[in-house]
Structure formats: structure tokens, C-alpha cells
Specification:
Number of domains: 2
Mean pLDDT: 75
Low-confidence stretches: 183-192
Structural class: mainly alpha
Number of helices: 7
Shape: elongated
Radius of gyration: 31 Å
Distance between the termini: 88 Å
Strand content: under 5%
Length: 192
């Protein structure tokens, strides 16, 4: 019977990580400019278990994490720039467009692309285009539903205002606040 039932296997941590030396290695390498071998020797002298290979792996892992973080930051900046000043679900459409662009960039760099059957390539590109179209459809349906909801709310608000005999000027002020309408109360002294 397995003791790991239901648990995903966790990756083994290196001796460097277990001893809490990653930050020290990064500091020694980047701030003090020490060589990997010198870092390993210094750590050994302090009583830690460290090797040049362990130091090298810790630095490579750190560089990999920095690269991933930078890629995520660039993705976020691209998404923010693409959706800046765009309302509602445009973010989904922009996300799909960015993903499609990235996919096409990756596909164009594949050497096997020349070996791929044209039908398969067209199928893949069609799927990406279809996903963008579906996102646009979702956005359109959202916008239709939003507008219908606003119209229904306005109608109910007007009915409720009539039932409690709310003055028209107050109703117009409420509508302006709720719906962003630019209505100005009618001046009773102004000729109609």
C-alpha cells in the first residue's frame, strides 16, 4: 500500500536549497563577483555541504526563474497595453490575439514547419482563428446582454418612480448617476 495516495510527488530539493544557501550563492556570485569554485570553497570552509556543481545548478535555476519571471512580466505588459482603454471583455479578445500571435511566432520558428502537410498547417491556423472568433462572439453577446439589462433596469426604475410619484428632476438625476447619462434637470422657468 502506498503512503503517497492522492499526493503528487514533490521534486527533491538540492543540498544547497536544504541548507538555505541559494540567496548567499546569488549574493556572492552577482554582488561580489566570485567564481563558482570560490563560492563552493567558501561555503565548505564555513561547514556547509557544497560543490561547484551544486553552486552551478543553483545559479542556473535562479537564471531560469528570472527568465520565466521576465517572460511573464512582458506578457502582462503586452496584455495591459493591448487592453488599455478597452472596456469589458475586450481583454479576452486581446488575450486570444496575443496568444495567436505568439503561437504563429513559435510555429514559424519550427524547422518541421516545412515538413508539415499544408492541410495540417491550415487546420491549426483555422483553430486559432476560430478561437478568436468565438471570443469576439462572447464579447458581442456580453455587450447585448449588458445593454438589455440597462434598458430593463431603466424601465423598472421609471415604473418605480411613477408609483411613488418621484419628481421627474429627481428621476433624471438618479438616471444620470446610475447610467452615466448627461441629463440636466429641466428649468421650470425656461419656456418649453
Amino acid at each position: 500500500m502506498s503512503l503517497n495516495r492522492g499526493w503528487a510527488a514533490m521534486p527533491r530539493r538540492s543540498k544547497i536549497e536544504l541548507q538555505g544557501l541559494v540567496e548567499e550563492i546569488i549574493r556572492l556570485y552577482y554582488t561580489e563577483g566570485k567564481r563558482q569554485e570560490d563560492i563552493a570553497d567558501e561555503l565548505l570552509a564555513k561547514g556547509y555541504e557544497a560543490s561547484k556543481g551544486g553552486v552551478n545548478r543553483a545559479l542556473k535555476n535562479h537564471a531560469k526563474q528570472l527568465k520565466e519571471l521576465k517572460a511573464k512580466q512582458q506578457w502582462a505588459e503586452t496584455l495591459i497595453a493591448a487592453t488599455d482603454k478597452t472596456p469589458r471583455l475586450s481583454i479576452a479578445d486581446a488575450g486570444l490575439q496575443i496568444a495567436a500571435t505568439k503561437l504563429l511566432e513559435e510555429v514559424s520558428e519550427l524547422e518541421e514547419l516545412g515538413d508539415m502537410e499544408p492541410e495540417k498547417l491550415v487546420t491549426l491556423l483555422t483553430r486559432v482563428s476560430r478561437a478568436i472568433g468565438l471570443a469576439a462572439n462572447v464579447e458581442l453577446n456580453f455587450e447585448r446582454g449588458r445593454k438589455a439589462g440597462i434598458l430593463e433596469t431603466r424601465k423598472k426604475l421609471e415604473e418605480a418612480a411613477r408609483s411613488v410619484e418621484l419628481p421627474e428632476t429627481v428621476l433624471n438625476a438618479i438616471k444620470a448617476q446610475l447610467f452615466g447619462l448627461e441629463t440636466r434637470p429641466e428649468d421650470p422657468h425656461e419656456p418649453g
